[in-house]
Amino acid sequence: MDLGIKGKTAIVCAGSKGLGLGCATALAEAGVDLVLNARNVGPLEQAAKELRKFGVKVQTVACDITTPEGQAQVLEAAGSPDILVNNAGGPPPGMWSDWERADFIKALDANMLTPIMMMKACLPGMIDRGWGRVINITSQSVKAPIAALGLSNSARAGLTGYVAGTARQVAGRGVTINNMLPGAHATDRIAALDASISQNQGKTIAQAEAMRCATIPAGRYGTSAEFGAMCAFLCSQHAGYIVGQNILLDGGGVNATL
User: Is the pLDDT of residue 89 over 90?
Assistant: First the structure.
């Protein structure tokens, strides 16, 4: 399928590996030029090298997207992006008694306020041009909270509420905003969570992974490639009637009718 977005420009935050790289790869394959962000120069430049093989322009910005300074650097490099993929690493797991006010502020800055600020900066240009796509990578915990991820539950739920209203204000101007809610995918993030379970419960990494996969109807972890494919479709010319939705990609892990 021709996604109809060849020649457009996308910001992909935290795009050097994992789900962010999956999205960047699918967009590059569709002919989208990229402004690729990540904190570490080495992995970022390696990712950019691979993405350029699709024949697209890839500009790299090594910075912390969760800071105002980092956001300014990425936005300056992008100019007038047509597509924005918001992504940032999730806060560490724990339990309710572990977290203080500073922990919540840090989580809100990274997983709620950063994507909001990026949207606020990019939406006016998209509206003026009559076309734009925003994808926020959140979590399945928005639909079904995960006790150990209370910081993430809180911040991402706040972002979801913001998107629900904002998406409907800009849809009439050709701009769509949607959220992608990953479950367990084979990324560094899930590896860290499995390592935490391994340490806390005295199990091997393989046992921790098997325990988690047993709770997923698909019986496996998702891949960054299939996640990226959905991102690219939501950014395509064919997805203009999908507005303010929370798309689960969790292998059936959230057991709900709606």
Answer: no
* Count, residues in the chain: 258
pTM over 0.85: yes
Among 61, 57, 62, 117, smallest CA distance to 86 is for 117
Secondary structure letter of residue 188 according to DSSP? H
pLDDT digits 0-9 by tens, 196-244: 888 889 989 899 899 889 999 999 999 999 999 999 999 999 999 999 9
In degrees rounded to 5, what are phi and psi of residue 156? -75, -30
Backbone angles phi, psi at 249, to 5 degrees: -130, 80
Give dist(CA 229, CA 231) in Å, integer.
5
Distance, in Å, from the CA atom of 18 to the CA atom of 58, rounded to the nearest integer, reads: 18
What angle (nearest 5°) sits at the alpha carbon of residue 28, between those of residues 13 and 120? Answer: 35
Q: Closest by alpha carbon to 256, among 144, 137, 141?
A: 144
Alpha helices in 15-134 (DSSP H): 18-29, 41-51, 68-78, 101-108, 114-129
The C-alpha angle 227, 231, 236, rounded to 5 degrees, equals: 145
Task: Tell which residue, 237, 243, 250, has the closest CA to residue 4.
Answer: 237
Tokens of 153: 């539950």
With beta carbons less than 8 A apart as the criterion, state whether 230 and 135 touch: no
Structure tokens at 104: 């919540």
- Tokens linked to 163: 């998107």
